[in-house]
Amino acid sequence: MAEPLLLMAAGGTGGHMFPAQALAEAMLQKGWRVKLSTDARGARYTGGFPHTVEIEEISSATFARGGVLAKAAVPVRIASGVVSASLRMMRDRPDVVVGFGGYPTIPAMAAATLLRRPRMIHEQNGVLGRVNQIFARRVDAVACGTWPTALPNGVEGVHVGNPVRRAVGDRAGAAYIPPGDYPMKIVVIGGSQGARILSEVVPQGIAQLPDAVLAQLTIVQQAREEDVAAVQAAYEAIGVRAEVAPFIHDVPKQFAEAQLVISRSGASSVADISVIGRPSILIPYAAAAGDHQSANARGLVDAGAAILIPESQFTPESLATQVQAVLENPDGALQMALAAVSVSRPDATDALVTLVETLAAGERP
Q: SS3 helix, strand, coil % of the chain, rounded to 5?
């Protein structure tokens, strides 16, 4: 009997790719074949995927980048991608197609719709992305990573949570060492592309902490490549140990060792923080479509696991106040860590697997 085939379609950001990677890992263990449909940009983010995942590059494009001529060519490129995806799908028929959002998912999801293959979308954020809005009424299931998720009228979602990579799941509910008069770590992360405002504000905010706290601190911070030297120098100037890099490859390990995480509230970051269970200060990206990063943060904030600072109020002074409040209150920090775990969905991958298997069986969730 042939192995069942799962076709995943995902755009080229960590927010889309990490949940797809988690589902791929689980489905391969269950004996499925797995393909990933993405564009050339997305293919650059697949280094962490199991090597047995087949990567298909499909032509796609976005109206968000490029000049007038580039935008005029977008419909042609997308149409070409849909034709190519349809031909591939007719040659190698997937049992289920799952879209994770981003423009590179359009060809595969459109082809699955035309060919009437069982299909679903997974929305990581509390607000549907543009592409998932297009397909929400055209799929058999809408899986939601953040709950509640704003959905179109008449569309019902299934709350599964955001799947996390196996390295994160292995540290689910990791023992937390509350802050105290001993070495402490703060991890600062701004998404797969970093965040300049964190590079500018966080070192200045850390500089305002009491000397007794500074003497115990190590900072691990993600920064854009062009900002790394300046951020490193800012910490050296105040005598704080720091590791600054454009990409933190061992995020699960660093989170597990941290007393506090300072982060944007992208869906994958929120999922990692909650599954591992760490106090956090979240700064939603103000320009995010539909302010979805504020929606992502809501669960942790309402549970008392995170402190939210709007970008408009994110100053060195406001940050220093909140960091000091966490680091000088070990009992409160421990309660924040426990609260984070309480709202986590470490079973998100299993829930998504169940949906895939349900659709493959010809049933609706």
A: 45, 15, 40
Give residue 228's identity as a one-letter amino acid code: V
Question: What are the residues whose beta carbons fall under 8 Å from the beta carbon of 362, sequence distance 6 or more?
Answer: 118
Q: 15 and 124 in contact (C-beta within 8 Å)?
A: yes
pLDDT of residue 192: 57
d(CA 55, CA 75): 23
What is d(CA 149, CA 143) in angstroms, rounded to the nearest whole number? 10
Residue range 183-213, pLDDT digits in tens? 999 999 986 566 899 999 999 999 999 999 9
Reduced 3-state DSSP string for 167-205 = HHHCCCCCCCCCCCCCCEEEEEECCCCCCHHHHHHHHHH
Residue 75, C-beta contacts closer than 8 angstroms, at least 6 positions apart: none
Confirm if 116 and 144 have CB atoms less than 8 A apart.
no
Whether residue 320 contacts residue 205, with contact meaning beta carbons closer than 8 Å, is answered with yes
In whole angstroms, give the CA distance from residue 194 to residue 248. 10
Q: What ranges do the domains of the chain cover?
A: 5-163+346-360, 184-342
Please tell me the CATH code under which domain 184-342 is placed. Answer: 3.40.50.2000
How many whole angstroms separate alpha carbon 297 and alpha carbon 181?
30
Instruction: Tell me the C-alpha distance between 222 and 187, whole Å.
Output: 8
- Give the count of beta carbons closer than 10 Å to the beta carbon of residue 335: 15
CATH 3.40.50.2000 for domain 5-163+346-360: yes
**E runs forming strands in the chain:** 5-9, 33-38, 54-57, 96-99, 119-123, 141-144, 157-159, 184-189, 217-222, 241-245, 260-263, 280-282, 306-308
Determine how many CB atoms are found less than 10 A away from the CB of residue 160: 24
Q: Which amino acid is at 45?
A: Y
Q: Is the dihedral of CA 222, 223, 225, 227 positive or negative?
A: negative
What are the tens digits of pLDDT across the range 210-263? 999 999 999 999 999 999 999 999 999 999 999 999 989 899 999 999 999 999
DSSP secondary structure of 324-335: HHHHT-HHHHHH
The model's pTM is 0.90
